[in-house]
Amino acid sequence: MSIAATQKRGFGAVLWDYLTTVDHKKIAHMYLFSGGFFFLLGGLEALIIRIQLIKPNNDFISAGLYNEMFTMHGTTMIFLAAMPLLLGLMNAVMPLQIGARDVAFPFLNSLGFWLFLFGGILLNCSWFLGGAPDAGWTAYAPLSTTSPGHGVDFYVMGLQISGAGTLIGGINFLVTIVNMRAPGMTYMRMPLFTWTTFVASTLILFAFPALTVGLFLLMFDRMFGSAFFDIALGGNSIIWEHLFWIFGHPEVYILILPAFGMFSDIFSTFSRKRLFGYTAMVFATLLIAFLGFMVWAHHMFTVGMGPVANSIFAIATMAIAVPTGIKIFNWLATMWGGSITINSAMLWSLAFIPSFTIGGMTGVMVASAVADYQYHDTYFVVAHFHYVIVGGVVFGILAGLHYWWPKMFGRILHEGMGKLAFWTFFIGFHLTFFIQHFLGLMGMPRRYWVFLEGQELDLGNLISTIGAFFMTFGVIVFLINAIYSWKKGEKAPADPWDGRTLEWATASPPAHYNFKQTPLVRGLDPLWIEKTEGKDEMTPAEPLGDIHMPNSSILPFIMSLGLFIAGFGFIYQTDNSAWLIVLFAGMAILFGSMIVRSVKDDHGYHITKEELEREAD
Amino acid sequence: MKGWMGKFRALFLLSSLALILSGCGKDNLTALVPKGYGAESAMDLIILTTIVMVFVFIIVMIIYTIVLIRFRKKKGQEDIIPKQVEGNKTLETIWTIIPILLLLIIAVPTVTATFDLADETGKEDAINIHVTGNQFWWHFNYEGEEIQTSQDLYIPVGERVYLDMISSDVIHSFWVPTIAGKMDTNPENENTMYIEAYEEGVYWGKCAELCGPSHSLMDFKVIAVSPEEYDQWVADMQNVDPEEEPQDAVVQEGKELFEANNCMSCHAIGSSPAAIGPNLTNFGDRSTIAGFLEPTKENLVDWIVDPESIKPGNKMTGNYPNVSEEEAESIAEYLMQLQPSEVTPESAGN
Ligand SMILES: [Cu+2]
């Protein structure tokens, strides 16, 4: 179906198309759109936080609301912005990079998305229903178990539902990469972004269950009178910290590894060079992922685990710096001797190197347990993880968006606006966060609603707030750029950047079956290989034939809606058991749809060879 | 190690120009000018790691700058295809080995310091104080002395004082940046740390673990006095007679109102360890009211009349009968004259 035909359809038809789609490219659009929306929401919350801290003893918002604000800022940015934006890019790009027609389980892919979205909406409903969660995104017990109102209940149900979506997405990507690579695409020929998608999905598979378990315990403590974290009844609150960080630390790598993958592809493309030390890059990724599971307790140095545990976790944490360092130097070596083009995608990637290096450095500093007795829970740590997450993940997402925008939407983003957004955001970012290292060491703990007068923290906080406004400006420019490109953007050719990997071997945006004929892969950077041999397209691995495609389905949407409804039932049945009806109704919708899905055979459909030939003209 | 660390410290302070321009933060609050054992150990590591890391950063930035200057695509060379290098074993080994060595430089002192700060060998003979974190105030129980204080913790300088810490509700974290790092107070088990101040002074303490709406107002002070003054203070505190009838009529009225309004059900005056609210034995000597307000009569009256407007979510609000402004004034008179000791925050040079 060509773009022109799409544009002629009415709004209702387009909406229905998106509600029912199982096409990884459209699901990617929805992930990006909703992730982008939550990013703006989380950004707004951040701005409110910074306005509150613009001067000492400020009363812009109340103490309670402030706690809700930073709790939702953290939760939203991690679970509802960074994760879906990355999942969106993975969905858009990974199947193309391995020469597949879709992911392994298109139905599940759609289910994963809708679960995430409904989970996110449920969480944010709390704003209008008596107050958002206020125990921090880490929700430490007993503060979270005793927090009054339903805020934390929304946190539990919202994250549980969206977490299930993420888990489904991760498993789906794993199976896709294992099973659906084009002929010749061995593991050691996969582009780095595919590799990091693969590894991040493995991390999702092993890390999210810890969160799921933790959330279940918290849910039962709050809603059904259990006492897992209630000390008075023999429970233990530290268990929550462990469960949370056994999930939480790998989560950091779930976010940063895909960004690493994107930078690898981008540096290589815009230097017109093969990635330096490909094998080392792959093994560094695996090593980071492995070590990522060994270090969770470095978030807990001050909990009182004793010197043995603290030392072990300190050293394990420092060890992660080695594979990370390897990556940094290999990226530099990739560019060394290259022919570097600097455009918006490359700007974000280049800015990543110093920013992330600072974040990595402070990471080693906080890993030093005794020094962390000072850093812990202060603005130093806030600065550290924003350098890693903004300087790494957000820069990565923005680089990736600029890089793959033409592939995803068929348009090229405006360079001028891209550069303006970059520079304001980049300057604002360092203004906001660099000074926070010092604020922390000067005695400012994190999650402080006010700082008192006369503590010499005023100037630093003011600078930080000014920086936040610069960042806001940068984000707005990016938004305008996105809208502009949609309306008037330059049309993108199939291969606008002289690309090296398979996604550039098909149209921009690709047809819904991605590749008319599955390509034959003859090495790392398959498209580049063909180009150096004077060809401008891939050699097909199969003759032109019928293509089997999955059918669309509204069921994933309905199933997620069912869980969403059940979520309210769970939350409010503590007030009034009449809400159990809602709970059961929601679950009935969910299980009903599952039964329908199981009983009804759906064999998909075929695009015939004749149709494909006709389309070619 | 201490010798060359000292030199490095001087170097470090000189080189961080930006920091010097903006100051190192408030004296006795900042961690950057340590005046105690734990804070100094941490600072040594902070300096060491910073030096190593800045070294790495500079190397990265040098390569980065060269790359950006030398290898940008030049006009007229658009078609040049660079050599496709696969990798380089030697280089890759170098940038694996060197970071490992650098990390060892950091790891060894880290482990040493971690064990050092967890050392409890001298605990039996030292002063032991039980610390309890509460939403949103701190309680200190001086073991073997039958002394209770809240918000102000008195210690002698130059001695290791052992703190056994626990929480009565949610998790808090005890942090006195200038003399020691932080340690969480968990509800289920006691954590132990020691602190040692090198100089007399009133040191700022803060709660560093989110504990509810007034988390940011959960300040306290550590008052380090000379050992003689400390002994004097202990003796004075032990001499307090809570039953003593005041001479002054207003004070007497205040005392009666204090008793009549149920205040006693939460606030002890004297050595009773019961603590639903802060112990007020030496309230008149306190450096603050409620942990962070100037110790003035107006502030105290405001607090008694409407604590919610001062510390949102505190556990006093709504749990006692309404007190009028006049009544509060009398109570304030009574509380402010509870000054059992000559040794006060002023003695510590504040
Ligand atoms: Cu606290």
Describe the structure.
The complex is a heterodimer of chains A (617) and B (350). Chain A has a single domain (3-553, 602-616), classed as Cytochrome C Oxidase, Chain A, CATH 1.20.210.10. In chain A, 67% of the residues lie in helices and 2% in strands. Chain A has 20 helices and four strands. Chain A starts with a helix and ends with a helix. The model of chain A is unreliable at 1-6 (pLDDT under 50). Among the domains of chain B are: 2-72 and 83-117, no CATH class; 249-348, Cupredoxins -  blue copper proteins (Immunoglobulin-like, Sandwich). Chain B has helices at residues 2-15, 17-22, 37-70, 89-117, 227-238, 249-260, 297-305, 325-336, and strands at 127-134, 137-142, 147-150, 152-156, 161-167, 172-175, 182-185, 191-195, 201-207, 220-225. In chain B, a hairpin with a 4-residue loop joins strand 2 and strand 3. At the A-B interface, helix 4, helix 10, helix 11, helix 12 and helix 13 of A face helix 3, helix 4, strand 7 and strand 9 of B.
